[in-house]
Amino acid sequence: MDPQSIGMLAVFGGGFTIGLWYILARNDTKLNMRHGMSPEGLRYNSGQPGFGNAKQQLNAKLAIVEERRRARELARGRLAQLEAEQNVKKQAAERAARQTAEQAREAERLRLAAIADAQAEAEAAARQAEDEAERRRREREEARLAEARNAQLADLEAQRQLELEAAEAARLAEIDAAREAEAIQSKQAAKAAMKELQERLEREGARSSDVQVSLMWNNFNDLDLHIVCPSGERIHGGNKISKCGGELDVDANVRPESKKPVENVYWPEGTAPAGQYQVYVHHYKKHKKRRSKDPTKFQLIVNSVGDVMEYKAALTHGDPIMLVASFEVPSMAERRRAKKELEDRLAALERGEDPDSMAELPPEEMTTATPDTDGLIDELNERLEREGADSTFDGSDATNLPSAPDLDELSETQSSGD
Asked: What would the pLDDT profile of 38-70 be if each residue is shown by its tens digit?
């Protein structure tokens, strides 16, 4: 309850208490206490109104108070309604104000955002322009540096190429020197081998000719030389004299007699049949009592009409027979033709001409050509040395060249010397 209602109740309660006290305190009041008598039957001896009238008056006053209370409550309700309506209006106004303020703030925010976006776009455009300028500057700098690097690399590459060329030249020079030294060593070794072979052949009384095959090794083991002729016939220790004219005239170490043995097959001068020959070597026996060790290294020297070839290999007892060499013996017509060509070349050299280039010149120019004969002289010296000539020439005076040698005489001279 509100304070006004509490105050009214207090006033009415106080009045009721005072009235009750006044009734009870009067001396002239007489009560009829008979059962069933209502308060309206009370009478006062003084002739004043009874309790019923007071009640009616009290009820009328209470009704007035209640009416006033209701009027006040209605007034308060109306005031509350008005206040509520005012509050609603106020809240609506406040909401409208807040919405307006919010809209204003949103508009301001959007405006500021638009300004910020514009500034950001401007800054981005400025940064992009700066980045583009920086990129172009870097590209120019990189291009300049790349050009400088390329120039430096070109210089380094040129220097490297020069160094590589120098190194290659030095390497080729070393290779040439090594080849030359190897050739010299090979030639010296070949000469030593030929000398050793000649000594062994002379010791055994072997024959030499234009077609000859010799085998030598350096222990007491028994190696056998086998040669298959163009006819298919085989020359070996069991067939020393063949139908094709070849003869095994030295068969060494059937018994362990020599530590420097040699075997030799030859054909009398000019009698070797033309065709393909095959040379085999067989390790026939290992002589244990002489403590000869395996593998046995050997050298094979083949002379096919002045073309001398040397082969080196090794065999152990029990190994299969080994094909070591194969050579071709030309026919007599081919030998005569080669001899005639050699004589013609030497005759051309005596006249200061190169027969190879002369063959390609027109007839009117053949008498005026003066060739460079160094290569041909080297080739002829090699052939003369291979044919067993006693001397060679250096070509310093092309007009005083020696006459062409007779190959048959050279072969006979070599045979008689052996």
From this structure: 444 444 444 555 566 778 888 888 888 888 888
**Digit-coded pLDDT (tens) for 128-144:** 999 999 999 999 998 98
Distance of CA 11 to the CA centre of its chain: 115
Measure the CA–CA gap between 331 and 308, rounded to whole angstroms: 17
Query: Can you give the pLDDT at residue 348?
Result: 80
Task: Write down the pLDDT at residue 388.
Answer: 47
Residue 225 and residue 203: Cα distance in Å, rounded? 18
Expressed in percent and rounded to 5, the helix, strand and coil fractions of the chain are: 55, 15, 25
How would DSSP label each residue in 122-158? HHHHHHHHHHHHHHHHHHHHHHHHHHHHHHHHHHHHH
Tell me if 42 sits within 8 A of 32, measured CB to CB. yes
Q: What are phi and psi of 109, to 5 degrees?
A: -65, -45
| Helix (H) or strand (E) run with residue 78 in it | helix 51-204
Kindly tell me if the per-residue pLDDT of 300 is higher than 90: yes
In the numeric block, which tokens belong to residue 29? 């009041």
Q: Alpha-carbon dihedral of residues 209, 212, 218, 222, nearest 10 degrees?
A: -120
Spell out where 338-399 has E strands.
none
Average pLDDT, the chain: 78
User: How many Å from the N-terminal Cα to the C-terminal Cα in the chain?
Assistant: 164
Residue type, 408: D
Burial of 353 (0-12, 13-18, 19+ CB in 10 A): buried
- Find the angle CA(146)-CA(150)-CA(152) to the nearest 5 degrees: 115
Angle between helices 374-386 and 332-350 (to 10 degrees): 130
Type of residue numbered 347: A
| Residue 407 to residue 175: CA distance in whole angstroms | 36
CA angle 151, 157, 159 (to 5 degrees): 105
Beta strands, E only, 131-272: 211-217, 222-228, 234-235, 247-250, 262-267
Distances (CA, A) of 94 to 61, 97, 98, 99, 103: 47, 5, 6, 8, 14
The one-letter code for the residue type at 24 is: L
Residues facing residue 311 across a β-bridge? 300
Q: What is the pLDDT of residues 267-291, one digit of tens each?
A: 998 889 999 999 999 999 888 766 7
